[in-house]
Each structure stands twice: as structure tokens, then as C-alpha cells.
Amino acid sequence: MLVKICTEQFDPWLEAQNYQNQQKAMIGKFGATSIFIGTMRDFNDGDAVKGMTLEHYPGMTEKQLEKIIAQAQQQWQLIDVLVVHRVGDILPNEPIVLTAVWTSHRGDAFDANRYIMEELKTKAPFWKKERLLSEHERWVLKNTDGYQP
Amino acid sequence: MSIKVRYFASLKESLGRSEDTVEFSSAATVREVWRCANPEKSLPNNILVAINMDYVDLDSTVNDGDEVAFFPPVTGG
């Protein structure tokens, strides 16, 4: 299990691949990998967005993410979990978050990853501040409903 | 006892500072920590609170050396 906070741009595909390659103990054991990647859009709430800054609470962020993963481990049969989250200044099309879950079977992989991501959205202390095309800055006040189509 | 108070994001901006230190001579709750640090500002709606990086409610009791954090709803991911 690994939680990683990045201050620089990261490649989520490479992160997942490298992590999987390093976990020699799970070779031959996992039959399902569920990967979620959150990427910055260039629009929000009807406005064009040119960039944003992600603030976090160092220490508490890692502690809460580790707690979320531990809760997922109690509910599903998980072989391994990787969570990578970006902080600092971010531009549209750059990845914000990666959650990857390795399990024996697909159900646990899908369900645990969804749980980890939804919990992250409400418990992990990160805050987004958007820069609009107009140069106006605004804090994002709430998350969108993750279950809306 | 001494309590370190931290603020984040829009709350930090509106207060104009990121932390305070408050002193109490007897037991205090998180709500009292806010009142002591911000006597002229009421607690914002929907505020989240943590003691030593774990979520708590406003009636939780603080201990000497605790770090109490106040912040708005989180929006990561």
C-alpha cells in the first residue's frame, strides 16, 4: 500500500505500472486491477478555467488516505492499493489523482476503488482554487455528485 | 495548556493568517478554542475540525500540546 503526494506533474500510467512491477509478492496473485484517474478540466460551473492551485494539509492528508485504504481493506479482499495525488499549481489536462487497486477478482477491484475515491473526495484535506480566463480566482466550494451520469 | 490552531484554504484567506496559539488554564472544547482565537468571528457554517489530524466534532475536548485545525469542506480528487 502506498500513498504519495506529488508537487510536480506525474504520469498516472507510469506510476501504476512502476508500482505493480515493484510489488514482486503479488506476481501471479492478482486477477483484477482497477484504475481511476482524475484529470483537470478546462471548464467548471459554466466558466473557462485556465489553471488551479491545490492546497493540502500535510500529514493529515496522508493519515486520512491511509485510514480510507484501511477501511477498504476491511470491506474487500485487496492485494494492494496505490493512491497518488497532486498538489500545487496545476494546468488543464494534467492528472490530479490516481487510485489503483489490485485484487484477485474484478468485483472487489471496482467496488473498493469507487469507495476509496468517494471517501477521498469528502475526507482527504485538499482544496482547489481555480483561476478563470478572466484572471479571477475562486475557491471550489463543493464536489460534484460522483454518481450523476 | 497550550493549543496550536491551524487554518486552511478559504478560511485561512478570510482570517488573514494560517495559525494561532491559544492558552487555557482548564479543560476546553474545540468550540472554545475557536472563540478564544477568533473572539469577534462566529464559526463558519459547514466548517470541518480536526485534532491532531483526526476529524472531531466541535464539542470534543482538547489536551495540552494538541494541534486543532479548522477548514472548509474538502474538494480534492
Fold topology:
The complex is a heterodimer of chains A (149) and B (77).
Chain A: E1 2-6, H1 12-22, E2 32-39, E3 43-44, E4 47-56, H2 60-75, E5 78-86, E6 88-90, E7 95-103, H3 106-123, E8 126-132, E9 137-139
Parallel strand pairs in A: 1-5
Antiparallel strand pairs in A: 2-7, 3-4, 4-6, 4-8, 5-7, 8-9
Helix pairs in contact in A: 2-3
Chain B: E1 2-7, H1 9-15, E2 19-23, E3 28-29, H2 30-37, E4 48-51, E5 54-56, E6 61-62, E7 67-71
Parallel strand pairs in B: 1-7
Antiparallel strand pairs in B: 1-2, 3-6, 4-5, 4-7
Summarize this structure as a short list of keywords or feature phrases:
heterodimer; A: 149 residues; alpha+beta; Aldehyde Oxidoreductase, domain 3; 5-stranded antiparallel sheet; 4-stranded mixed sheet; 38% strand; elongated; B: 77 residues; Ubiquitin-like (UB roll); 5-stranded mixed sheet; two-stranded antiparallel sheet; 2 helices; 7 strands; globular
Task: Explain briefly what this protein structure is.
Helix content of chain A is 30%, strand content 38%.
Report on the structure:
The complex is a heterodimer of chains A (149) and B (77). With 149 residues, chain A is an alpha+beta fold. Chain A has a single domain, classed as Aldehyde Oxidoreductase, domain 3. In chain A, 30% of the residues lie in helices and 38% in strands. Chain A contains three helices and nine strands. In chain A, strands 3, 4, 6, 8 and 9 form a five-stranded antiparallel sheet that branches. In chain A, helix 2 packs antiparallel against helix 3. The longest helix of chain A is centred in the C-terminal third of the chain and has 18 residues. With 77 residues, chain B is an alpha+beta fold. Chain B has one domain: Ubiquitin-like (UB roll), CATH 3.10.20. Chain B contains two helices and seven strands. In chain B, the strands form two sheets. In chain B, strands 2-1-7-4-5 form a five-stranded mixed sheet. In chain B, strand 4 and strand 5 form a beta hairpin. Chain B is globular and about 40 Å long. The N and C termini of chain B lie far apart (37 Å). The chains are: A alpha+beta (149), B alpha+beta (77). At the A-B interface, strand 4, helix 2, helix 3 and strand 8 of A face loops of B.
